[in-house]
Specification:
Layout lengths: L1 E5 L2 E8 L5 E2 L9 E6 L4 H14 L4 H4 L3 H11 L6
Parallel strand pairs: 2-4
Antiparallel strand pairs: 1-2, 3-4
Helix pairs in contact: 1-3
């Protein structure tokens, strides 16, 4: 497990399979915030990470659920982003 502090606080980041992604927000009222992202080295895993981290930063749902994470993931993937 990894942790990172975003605008909405410190998150425990879990990598898992079989789940697209999930992120606690202030509305959930959780003291310990969790974020679940896809494991693996795929474009979809990158997209999920960006999507959930945007939620943790408090970026409006209209941006997070639009095409922004897809465009960002596409650009990074074309630039050679890969997990090691």
């Amino acid at each position: 497990m990894r942790t990172h502090t975003f605008r909405h606080g410190k998150y425990n980041i879990h990598e898992c399979s079989g789940l697209y992604g999930c992120c606690d927000t202030p509305e959930t009222g959780c003291k310990r915030k969790n974020m679940f992202i896809q494991e693996g080295n795929t474009r979809r895993a990158l997209n999920t990470s960006i999507h959930e981290m945007m939620h943790a930063e408090g970026i409006p749902d209209s941006c997070v659920h639009g095409l922004a994470p897809d465009r960002i993931a596409d650009a990074l993937w074309r630039m050679g982003w890969r997990r090691t």
